[in-house]
Model the fold of this input.
Amino acid sequence: MTLLSPRHHGFIDYAAVVLLALAPLALRFGPVPTAVCYVTALAHLVVTLLSDHPLGAARKIPFAVHGAVEFSLGVGLLASPWLFGFSDEVPARAFFVVAGIGLLLVVLATRYTAGVISRPEPYDRYDR
Done:
């Protein structure tokens, strides 16, 4: 059973982008985890804006593909402290592990096949 509709998932996506962008300042990360946070936030923002869900802007990426990319981002966040060599920075390591698990839980809880259909093209109401 899934808990999150595509609309709710979109709200969480934008909140995650903000969290990833603000965490380095709030938790005083070193340069490497800061860079990883900013790159991940930017990637997540681009994918969210381009995804075909109610809060997507361009709706070019199918929502199921969005889920696969998000799964990859979650795994990447989990592995980042060890991949990029900042596992000795406790606040950064803890943030990345928690953020990765949180993103994976969102992926597991979302209905990616909830019948998301691209919005119809805008029409002129006087074209009747």
In short: The CA atoms of residues 52 and 63 lie 5 Å apart.
